[in-house]
């Protein structure tokens, strides 16, 4: 960044600039309402010309000491306020940004390459953050306020949005956006970044085509859903696939895919559609495979039942830090679902339902790795055993193929 750009960036973060931008925004809103203009129906070029001209006139009328670069910045920011997502629009447009996190008006962070950093943008105040949140949610029929202070939503492009406002958020309104990749990751992409080895990639490809049941496990932000999306690309296009998600993120390029999405309760706390409802319904829809975006509740028993009753090749993700922890997590969720059988019987069900755990993780460097591909099996006297077929060794930073020792 050259000195001129750096100086401009610092100016856009000042209170002076924020107040000027806020006053300009109010002026444009009043002008649009007075002329009864429906700029949401205009194309981008028309909006850009209109805003640039009105900004030029406003600067002249107010006799503002603004140079051309500052005028251009005002026009861009005013356009983003009117038809975009305000200060974070440039971050939404930046394909290298994976996550956007807003912790109040003066704390905006982005994630690039697995690392969080401060973004060179800010909001005017809490009301400004809330206004942008409402603009994000309005087209999808959602809103957030004191009566509904938390909301999970999905943007039309598939990006996940979470917003939480006071009084629940004590330090001001917060917004989190997990952006949706415009182009799905390929196996070659993962090889180029060292996420896994060629042998592991070929093995997983073979097992997906061979209809193995898989659970992708990992922590928050480890790339579970992204990896599940990669695996799902290898499903033969002739198979009928039903997907169940809280927020639809999977992008299956198949002719025979039915996408189902949960629905939260209404303001009266009724008419919710849960993942368990959808998994049960999916079983009646003649699926070849069922893919659940994430197992996190009582749908676990229905998912295991599906895997056990002829829906081979089904897949899901699970929040756990290792395959062994994933088994304990499944036991815990089964208990929440009302399972009252013995631990041995449940582990036997898991062993007969699940063929592979794939453990993905984000390292402290920000890199994402497939830490292990683990086979699930049973033997006499032990209803469930785990055996690593591939493992990433942190000490040597190498992907190990352990199949010959298995």
UniProtKB/TrEMBL annotation:
<dbReference type="InterPro" id="IPR001482">
    <property type="entry name" value="T2SS/T4SS_dom"/>
</dbReference>
<feature type="domain" description="Bacterial type II secretion system protein E">
    <location>
        <begin position="83"/>
        <end position="358"/>
    </location>
</feature>
<dbReference type="GO" id="GO:0016887">
    <property type="term" value="F:ATP hydrolysis activity"/>
</dbReference>
<comment type="similarity">
    <text>Belongs to the GSP E family.</text>
</comment>
<protein>
    <submittedName>
        <fullName>Pilus assembly protein CpaF</fullName>
    </submittedName>
</protein>
<dbReference type="InterPro" id="IPR027417">
    <property type="entry name" value="P-loop_NTPase"/>
</dbReference>
<dbReference type="Pfam" id="PF00437">
    <property type="entry name" value="T2SSE"/>
</dbReference>
<dbReference type="InterPro" id="IPR050921">
    <property type="entry name" value="T4SS_GSP_E_ATPase"/>
</dbReference>
């Amino acid at each position: 960044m050259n000195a001129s750009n750096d100086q401009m960036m610092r100016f856009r973060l000042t209170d002076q600039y924020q107040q000027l931008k806020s006053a300009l925004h109010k002026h444009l809103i009043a002008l649009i309402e007075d002329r009864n203009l429906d700029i949401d129906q205009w194309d981008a070029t028309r909006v850009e010309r209109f805003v640039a001209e009105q900004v030029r006139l406003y600067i002249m009328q107010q006799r503002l000491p603004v140079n051309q670069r500052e005028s251009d910045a005002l026009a861009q920011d005013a356009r983003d306020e009117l038809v975009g997502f305000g200060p974070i629009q440039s971050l939404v447009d930046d394909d290298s940004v994976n996550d956007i996190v807003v912790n109040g008006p003066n704390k905006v962070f982005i994630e690039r390459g697995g690392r969080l950093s401060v973004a060179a943008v800010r909001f005017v105040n809490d009301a400004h953050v809330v206004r942008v949140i409402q603009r994000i949610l309005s087209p999808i029929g959602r809103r957030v306020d004191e009566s509904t202070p938390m909301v999970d939503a999905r943007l039309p492009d598939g990006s996940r949005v979470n917003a939480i406002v006071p009084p629940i958020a004590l330090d001001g309104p917060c917004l989190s956006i997990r952006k949706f990749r415009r182009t799905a990751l390929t196996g070659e992409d993962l090889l180029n970044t060292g996420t896994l080895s060629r042998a592991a990639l070929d093995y997983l490809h073979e097992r997906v085509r061979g209809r193995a049941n898989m659970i992708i496990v990992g922590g928050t932000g480890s790339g579970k859903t992204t990896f599940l999306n990669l695996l799902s690309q290898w499903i033969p296009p002739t198979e009928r696939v039903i997907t169940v998600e809280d927020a639809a993120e999977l992008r299956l390029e198949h002719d025979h895919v039915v996408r189902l999405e949960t629905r939260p309760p209404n303001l009266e706390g009724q008419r919710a559609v849960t993942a368990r409802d959808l998994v049960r319904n999916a079983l009646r829809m003649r699926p070849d495979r069922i893919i659940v975006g994430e197992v996190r509740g009582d749908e676990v028993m229905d998912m295991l039942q599906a895997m056990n009753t002829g829906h081979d090749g089904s897949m899901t993700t699970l929040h756990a830090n290792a395959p062994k922890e994933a088994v304990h997590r499944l036991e815990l969720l089964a208990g929440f679902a009302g399972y009252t059988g013995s631990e041995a019987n449940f582990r036997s069900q898991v062993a007969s339902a699940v063929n592979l755990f794939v453990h993905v993780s984000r390292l402290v460097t920000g890199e994402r790795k497939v830490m292990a591909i683990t086979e699930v099996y049973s033997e006499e006297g032990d209803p469930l055993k785990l055996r690593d077929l591939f493992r990433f060794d942190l000490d040597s930073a190498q992907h190990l193929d352990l199949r010959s020792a298995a």
